[in-house]
Amino acid sequence: MAGRVLLVGAGGLGSPAALYLAAAGVGTLGIVDDDVVEESNLQRQVLHGTQAIGTPKVASATARLRDLNPMVAVESHPDRLTSANALDIVRGYDLVIDGSDNFPTRYLVNDACIFTGRPDVYGAIFRFEGQVSVFGAAGGPCYRCLFRDPPPPELVPSCEEAGVLGVIPGVIGTLQALEAIKLLAGLGEPLVGRLLLFDGLKSGMREMSLSRDPDCPVCGEHPTITTLQDYEALCGMRTSDEAARPDDLTPSDLAAWLAEPRPPLLLDVREDWEWRLVHLDGAVHVPLGSLPGRVNELPRDRPIAVYCHHGQRSRRALDFLRQTGFERVSHLVGGVEAWAREQAPGMTRY
After folding, report:
1. From 145, 159, 216, 219, the catalytic residue
2. Do residues 172 and 317 both lie within one domain?
3. 282 and 218, same structural domain?
4. Is 142 considered catalytic here?
5. pLDDT, tens digit, for every residue of 99-142?
6. What is the mean pLDDT of residues 226-236?
7. Which pLDDT value is given to residue 237?
8. CATH number where 319 lies
9. CA-based Rg of the chain, rounded to a whole angstrom?
10. Is residue 14 located within the same domain as residue 151?
């Protein structure tokens, strides 16, 4: 099979997809991921092993896939997929498997696939459930036909809030590999215009019919979106004027503030297990769900810098504290994940 497949993400969905595509003898596998392997990944990211902990996921994936099938060419892209590089990367492949776990990347992959004419093999998981479809194929709908606009970030639970059973991404990622093989080989009926829904608790599947939306802003008859966007801003993960907002802190902003003679109080609003795994020195721990009942424990005469895992819960905590009379509150954009990536490379990530 001489196809070229780009895998966005070498995590829970990307692991089984990559293994089965390599085993099937797909010609070239491209893998784009800027993350490193953590011990907490191994419960669902079966492409990696204990010896790979601390190494880049693309390096771990490349070694495993070459061992599985040395005839398959593996091209690694140890970068984050962004609006700046997506078109150049995507157009080098025949189709894309979206193994991402966040809305900004899903919209980015969808739009890049539409603009380059590549099918987008979509997969998503939530707790005991999963979804699979093929977007952007000739005559079929795209992701925006189904979800034109992203949900507000406060309604999107993070992985640590929602959780996922480790075998569910194995099921969904394997189905994504199946769809890719069908598309490359011209076999069967790919999931174009169909959304496959998997319920792990019932071990059952059902389908929804999807239609291309003629008013879709990307693939419709009169598209209004013709270039890649700022997808983090689109999905409410950050604002385009982020650096200018006094209540949003970048990791470097927070590091500088903590070095001052009068630093802010660090407030960690993650769950207990996350706190035990890793936290910033000197922080006070109050999980977001407990904040309303413990708000009087926080000083009102000292600035507060809130953080969580990725920045969504800390934004909700900031809004709550403002509503209850706290005036000097900021939050860390990107959360402890951004802090580890930019300020503490050796810090535990999950």
Report:
1. 159
2. no
3. no
4. no
5. 998 888 999 999 999 999 999 999 999 889 999 999 999 989 99
6. 76
7. 58
8. 3.40.250.10
9. 21
10. yes
